[in-house]
């Protein structure tokens, strides 16, 4: 029912766009980690499809969309080929990749939330699944690359908050019965815009109280370097 | 049927208590790894709910309890806030946290086993799911924090054995038709008590035969430091 | 229907053989990482059963075979005991272990593909699940051991390609309606033989274009050492 809010072909195109930009981020990390061409493709697939796969397993939508829609599988391969040959150029336009990634974040948190609600989850759980859909692929990417997920690190710009805001707008709209094309677009744009702002102004989340001694800062800086 | 052995509200209260103490252990590791406030919350949620989530996916109980019961989701957030402000105090009482963690271990191996059996798994498989429920969250916590799971390390006190004992008592009671409130409590207390004893007396499992040269010890000590 | 192609008892024996050799590879890594006896058993179980578990969760075959067939669970324990006492000898015969691992790879990609198709996945998705079944356990093994999955590393011999070839032969046979005992054996042997050849002649996949400077090579060599 909710899904009717989007024209199916529009939703599908947006999904594919989100998958493509997430796949680019996975493939770029693989190049940086010096993986071979299969490592690049695997990391691109995992980053692009991991969040949605986790969501579908949890809500019981098996087989997951990632395995029933050929386009979902092909898109990360296209991204991999693209990065394989053009990674110096792609890295130079990292800024624009981040913009696309932010767009993917805004979109995935919204589609994740509505799909979870369609499958009967409660409002809070749906918002949570929206968040997991949006950030799950990136966490899997970092785990496979043997790095601390950037979602968890204090020295990265806010990533979870924009997704939470997008998801929350959707569940509030469902709750107050005002979910429509306009409010959906508003949610996507809120997530997207907040992530852009977080990157632009380097918004960061606080670490635990009393945990900001100079020693810790220096340590963290070293770890980042 | 088996679940009737517990009063639902008692079981729920025990579940929430187990979730809370596991969440504390996740949040404390996040503080030690210098994660930001979202990293703390994510690691608390994953540690507390990961084992049960894995169990529910495997036995086909979707959507998992973690997403249908709001309390399961809120409890780790409470633990995160608690650790965020009070982590120096909480670390000082690490001993008592370990006691609660041991209680969670004893409880989760028992509830995991009975839930798996309720969903039609065999006796051995149920005991296995009990073990996975009890230790799964901790393994996910360590993987996300980019550390070798302490479950696997030889230089940590026994963790799996107490859970195996608790699970085994339950399946033996099911097999010999004597599962009741008393034997269930016995299983919880066995797991709990064995873990306490393992910590108190530093019981450790052996490493592979012929693998205890001085060089290896020194290496391991360095890795631990 | 497809499964009838194999005599069930033959298929089961082959499955157990594949599980055993994968478990050996997991247990050996655990010994090398200095894990205790439970770490060895856990890593053996995860390596042997992880790929099939992932496949069964994705295609909705719950509870997964790993939890309904006692032999699947016992086999890795046997492998663990074996490695626990005999690891110096087993390491000395690493070559023959690799041969068995290659056999497991060839077999798992074929059984994974046919099982996924039996559960209604499309041809491409089935081939993909065959690949995931064959390589999934090894990826989980490396993640738990806190290493970069060897599947992704450029300095390892081809691993994914033999599995892809085996899976592809199966789906082509399904597509052109010529799947039978002979073509199935051909697929297994192709995967097996290609992996052997990749190890023998050190076939490796290329890294990203323009990513082969002397500095990078030196770095990578250091990382490998």
What can you see in these coordinates?
- Three copies of one chain form a homotrimer.
- By secondary structure, the first copy, chain A, is mainly α.
- The first copy, chain A, has one domain (2-224).
- Chain A contains nine helices and no strands.
- In chain A, helix 2 packs antiparallel against helix 6.
- The radius of gyration of chain A is 18 Å and the shape is globular.
- The model of chain A is unreliable at 213-225 (pLDDT under 50).
- Chains in contact: A-B, A-C, B-C.
- Chain B binds chain C through residues 57-60, 119-122, 124-125, 128-129, 139, 143, 146-149, 151-154, 160-161, 204-211, 216, 219-220, 223, and chain C through 30-31, 33-40, 42-43, 53, 57, 62-64, 67-68, 70, 73, 83-88, 143-146.
Radius of gyration of chain A: 18 Å
Q: Given the helix and strand composition of chain A, which structural class is it? A: mainly alpha
**Binned strand content of chain A:** under 5%
The global form of chain A is globular
Low-confidence stretches of chain A: 213-225
Number of strands of chain A: 0
In short:
The structure is a homotrimer of 225-residue chains. Chain A is built from nine helices and no strands.
Features:
0% strand, homotrimer, mainly alpha, 225 residues
Task: Summarize the SSE layout with pairings.
Three copies of one chain form a homotrimer.
Chain A: H1 8-32, H2 37-59, H3 65-68, H4 70-92, H5 94-118, H6 123-144, H7 160-175, H8 181-201, H9 214-224
Helix pairs in contact in A: 1-2, 1-4, 1-5, 2-4, 2-6, 5-6, 5-7, 5-8, 6-7, 7-8
């Amino acid at each position: 029912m909710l899904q009717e809010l989007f024209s199916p072909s529009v939703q599908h195109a947006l999904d594919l766009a989100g998958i493509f930009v997430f796949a680019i981020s996975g493939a770029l990390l693989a190049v940086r980690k010096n993986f071979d061409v299969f490592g690049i493709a695997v990391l691109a697939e995992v980053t692009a499809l991991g969040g949605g796969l986790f969501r579908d397993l949890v809500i019981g939508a098996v087989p997951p969309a990632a395995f029933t829609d050929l386009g979902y599988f092909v898109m990360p391969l296209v991204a991999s080929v693209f990065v394989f040959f053009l990674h110096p150029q792609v890295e130079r336009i990292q800024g624009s990749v981040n913009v696309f990634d932010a767009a993917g974040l805004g979109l995935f948190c919204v589609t994740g939330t509505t799909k979870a609600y369609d499958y009967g989850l409660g409002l809070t759980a749906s918002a949570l699944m929206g968040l997991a859909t949006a950030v799950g692929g990136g966490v899997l990417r970092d785990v496979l690359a043997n790095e601390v997920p950037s979602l968890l690190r204090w020295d990265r710009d806010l990533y979870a908050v924009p997704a939470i805001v997008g998801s929350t707008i959707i569940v509030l709209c469902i709750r107050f019965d005002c979910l429509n094309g306009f409010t959906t677009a508003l949610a996507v744009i809120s997530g997207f815009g907040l992530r852009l702002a977080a990157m632009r102004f380097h918004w960061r989340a606080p670490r635990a109280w009393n945990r900001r001694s100079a020693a810790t800062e220096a340590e963290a800086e070293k770890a980042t370097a």
